[in-house]
Known about the structure:
Elements: H1 2-6, H2 11-21, H3 23-31, H4 35-58, H5 69-81, H6 83-95, H7 100-111, H8 127-152, H9 160-163, H10 175-179, H11 183-211, H12 216-228, H13 244-254, H14 280-305, H15 313-331, H16 341-348, H17 354-363, H18 376-394, H19 404-437, H20 442-453, H21 459-462, H22 475-490, H23 492-498
Helix pairs in contact: 2-4, 3-4, 3-8, 4-6, 5-8, 5-22, 5-23, 6-7, 7-8, 7-22, 8-11, 8-12, 11-12, 11-13, 14-15, 14-16, 15-16, 15-17, 18-19, 19-20, 20-22
Amino acid sequence: MGTRILNLPLILPLTGLFSLAMLGPALHAFAQGDHSVARVFFYSAVLGLVLVTVTGLALGGRGRGADAGVRDLAGLFMAYTLMPLLLALPFYEGLETTSYLNAYVEMVSSLTTTGATLFTDPGRLTDSLHLWRGLVGWLGGLMIWVSAAAVLAPLHLGGFEVSAQTEDGRAAQRIDQFRRAGSARRIARHGAQLVPVYTGLTGALWVMLLICGERPLVALIHAMSTLATSGISPVGGLPNAGAGVAGEALIFLFLGFALSRLTFSSDTATAAQAGLRDDPELRFGLGLVAAVALILFLRHWIAAYDVDEVRRLGRALAALWGTVFTVLSFLTTTGFESAAWGAARDWSGLGAPGLVLMGLAIVGGGVATTAGGVKLLRVYALYLGGRREMERLLHPSSVGRAGQSPRRIRREGAFIAWIFFMLFALSLAVVTVLFATLGQDIEAATVLAIAALSTTGPLTQAAAGAPIDLLGMGAAAKLLFCAAMVLGRLETLAIIALMNPALWRG
């Protein structure tokens, strides 16, 4: 039975999964005595399951074939664009004070783990609606974890094109043998491996936040948002949470899973390295966090020197912690701000460093994680290629470092990473111009474009001089924001692959 379900087009099992997930907020609303919201979620779940069942029966058992990687990629694209139409239905009916378009934008933002919200006042949404936002974001992160290994890796997309290894780390010439295992079998295998890990990590963080004194619902949503790097919060962010610095420290540790896939799995090409200690993404990411945090802290320190604040060690340590936490949060495209982040800016007299936060979000986290952005492996490949070219300027006859993997990343990997970076920059320029055409000023247009393409929604509130009012944007601008979020989640290379007729032949 399970194999037959997985053999259906990918959009159908995903719709069924999210329809079943609606029963969670339905039970929560029923327990809270909010029977109208409970009915909305229950009826929407039944509607989704009926649609999936009827469509599956109408297909008459026709599956996706033995090798349907491109069709699965198309299924992911449909999931990010069409499935939010169903996900928005209980949100729209449960809230009752917003338009269906606003509900659709909210669901696209949650599903792509962007985390941008049109409802900046948390009190406007009931706890059950907050739970639905967090649950959609959490399932969207799980979808990325599984699809990265089962769909993107065989197609050499999503960052795997840099290392050009197969899913299990074997040589590239074995990929055809692995592909013949079938798309459904790959999804089932990776799902069986990753779902317990993803669920267990979320549950562990939830329990730890509860121990720190957080409310159960808030702790659950923050735990789900951390693992999914969505940045969704039912209380407006960590400064309003009850876990304090201890809760931030726990979230900081779990954000490390977004720096490298080797922190939780060894099922993809990133496992070609000898171990976690030698993983270039993790080392590069931690080095970047340390360097940026040190620069910002020294900026704080120098600014505070003239006003005799240096002797206040407690405020200095608070500023350092707020800087380190916020830098890692935006590097992993989560977007949580530390409660000490505002104090750090006040301590130094420094305004919101929007350019720094946007730059970190553009770099992004690890390949095949829930983080967005350009990805650390691509930036690392560009760094290796650039360093090698500088060496050749000084020593034209020198020989580069040995080893097949470093040589591959330094040559072909750097070339492909440069192509992707140019495509990302071109997409950023086009989306920024379109936002400006639709009435946004140049600062807001730039922030909106980077927030969408890097899937870092909290940038809209933290990076600009004043928070951007997403709710007040026009319908065309909201639809453009949705399109940019989908583009940022699937990446430009994947969209181009869908448009290539050669990949669909046969």
